[in-house]
User: Which sequence fits this backbone?
């Protein structure tokens, strides 16, 4: 039985369950983004001599259509492959069970983590548009702009730059862009989403916070 240090891989300054690390890689959206998680997984496997991590990495590579890393056959018992849509659906169900106060707490923690981990991505007030689209398209399809405005005002972290605070004017200024995005579908289906990098990073943060901080590291999403 693996001990705690072996169970949790070191990733970007935090310990994360190896199963959840694979789930994050599966849900990254592209192999280029998924590779960031796989490097942490491989490093952890090398450190603790967990040979089956190569097979798990190859599952993710196969998921994205990337050639596998040569590895010995039958060196671990196969497990069901986590499906990207299943993970997103389970996270959404967790979110919808939360109270309004918990939604605000989640948004506050996620925004603070975003600024700490990706300080150069949220530069302008209209970047609230990307935050709104991620919450709406990933977690709450019925979330209106006005509802998001109320939640975001309450959830803005302490120390958030004054020039980047959301208000009614911010919502009015980016409403046209949101309508255009909605007409084409979810933000992650838009080929030329100008805030793609921010959206991808914030979804990664939201997913991690929901799994680790709100529901604990032992939450099973696959």
Assistant:
């Amino acid at each position: 039985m693996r001990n705690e240090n072996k169970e949790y891989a070191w990733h970007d300054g935090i310990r994360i369950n190896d199963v959840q690390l694979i789930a994050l890689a599966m849900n990254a959206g592209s192999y280029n983004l998924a590779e960031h998680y796989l490097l942490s997984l491989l490093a952890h496997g090398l450190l603790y001599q967990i040979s089956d991590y190569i097979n798990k990495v190859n599952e993710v590579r196969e998921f994205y259509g990337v050639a596998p890393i040569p590895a010995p056959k039958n060196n671990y018992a196969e497990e069901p492959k986590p499906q990207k849509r299943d993970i997103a659906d389970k996270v959404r169900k967790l979110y919808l069970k939360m109270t309004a106060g918990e939604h605000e707490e989640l948004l506050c923690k996620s925004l603070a983590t975003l600024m700490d981990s990706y300080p150069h991505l949220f530069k302008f007030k209209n970047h609230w548009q990307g935050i709104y689209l991620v919450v709406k398209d990933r977690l709450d399809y019925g979330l209106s702009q006005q509802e998001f405005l109320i939640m975001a005002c309450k959830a803005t972290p302490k120390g958030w730059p004054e020039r980047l605070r959301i208000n009614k004017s911010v919502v009015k200024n980016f409403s046209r862009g949101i309508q255009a995005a909605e007409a084409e579908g979810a933000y992650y289906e838009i080929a030329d989403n100008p805030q793609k990098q921010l959206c991808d990073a914030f979804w990664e943060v939201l997913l991690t916070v929901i799994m680790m901080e709100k529901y604990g590291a032992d939450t099973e999403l696959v």
